[in-house]
Write a structure and sequence with these properties.
alpha+beta
């Protein structure tokens, strides 16, 4: 007998929304075949059957907020007794009782306040079922944004944020970008690709053994953070492709298993294209920092001999979790980023 449960994907995930069932009780399913669709604060994903067999009774209704580890259905493999109503003359078995977690933002939103439905995410009143159905049919109704809001509020409440800012000379990066584009590689690198590489380089210099970087992507439902893996191991076209694929996954609401299972130390958020000079942000749960970058524009700067000149610069702000990163460490990381950006060659 195989069980399908809500997986623990990422350190910050505690629950998921069961959007809909893709298979009905008694259906034959193949190994790795999707049987249900769930939604976390990061993305929508399918839950697959671990074995080939017959699907049992649904233990959770669509629209329920389900804690991580909760079994939502069982699958009878070949040779085992059926676990669902498809067995001739058999009645559906009662699901095992599951301890109810504290109410979440979504539980309170989708349930009648003050009732058992508000306390137990698996029980649904007719009104709650109707609301859940309406939300599932209308992705823009705020269901996904509410999940994100829950995590953002938790991050701001739990993480003591601290920020350091520095102006960075963008002209070496722009020159490198022109050189890379002239080389004709496909896809064409962008300024964001060079920012990702500079951040990955800084993280490596400051002791990180990995070069995975999160990338904040704006979607109609809210900010989603896919992961660009092994940034320092990629050449310019490969990095541009990996970044483009990450953005596509985020906008489609279909992050990969690696996105959901990988928690990078830091995320890049670039609002320069929106005309923003500098800003701070909220660190993702499980990460230790967030680099926010503003637009690169010509500005008057003073050289070492106090000579004024016009250079293209941008402001970079490193937001850190002060529990694990102190001011001096944050300063070293931001300086390492600036040096990597300002020392970038024409190719990598």
């Amino acid at each position: 007998m195989a069980e399908i449960a809500i997986p623990s994907i990422g350190v910050a995930m505690t629950e998921a929304l069961l959007v809909k069932w893709l298979k009905e009780p008694g259906d034959e399913v193949a190994a790795a075949e999707p049987v249900a669709e769930i939604e976390t604060d990061k993305a929508t994903m399918d839950l697959e059957s671990p074995v080939a067999g017959r699907l049992g009774s649904h233990l959770v209704e669509p629209g329920a907020i389900v804690p991580v580890g909760t079994v939502i259905v069982r699958v009878a493999a070949e040779g085992e007794d059926s676990v669902g109503p498809a067995a001739a003359g058999a009645a559906p078995s009662d699901p095992e009782p599951v301890a109810s977690p504290p109410p979440s933002l979504l539980t309170a939103t989708l349930s009648e306040p003050g009732t058992a439905e508000a306390r137990t995410p698996h029980a649904r009143s007719p009104r709650a079922r109707r609301l859940a159905k309406e939300r599932a049919a209308a992705p823009g109704a705020g269901r996904f944004r509410e999940l994100i809001a829950t995590k953002v509020a938790e991050s701001w409440r739990e993480i003591p944020h601290f920020a350091v800012t520095r102006e960075v000379d963008a002209e070496p990066m722009l020159a490198a970008l022109n050189t890379l584009r002239a080389a004709g590689g496909e896809p064409t690198p962008t300024f964001t690709d060079l920012l990702l590489r500079a951040l990955a380089s800084a993280l490596r210099e400051c002791g990180s053994g990995e070069s995975h970087v999160g990338l904040a992507v704006a979607t109609p439902q809210g900010v989603v953070i896919p992961v660009v893996r092994d940034v320092l191991a990629l050449d310019a076209p490969s990095l541009a492709q990996a970044r483009g694929e990450a953005v596509e996954r985020a906008r489609a609401g279909r992050l990969s298993q690696e996105d959901l299972e990988t928690t990078p130390l830091s995320t890049l958020s670039n609002l320069g294209a929106f005309g923003i000079d500098h800003f701070t942000g909220i660190i993702a749960l499980g990460q230790t920092s967030l680099l926010t970058v503003g637009r690169a524009v010509p500005r008057v700067v003073a050289d070492g001999d106090r000579t004024l000149s016009v250079r293209t610069t941008f402001h970079a702000t490193l937001n850190v979790d002060h529990r694990s990163v102190d001011g001096a460490e944050a300063a070293r990381l931001l300086v390492a980023f600036a040096e990597a950006a300002e020392g970038m060659g024409g190719a990598f």
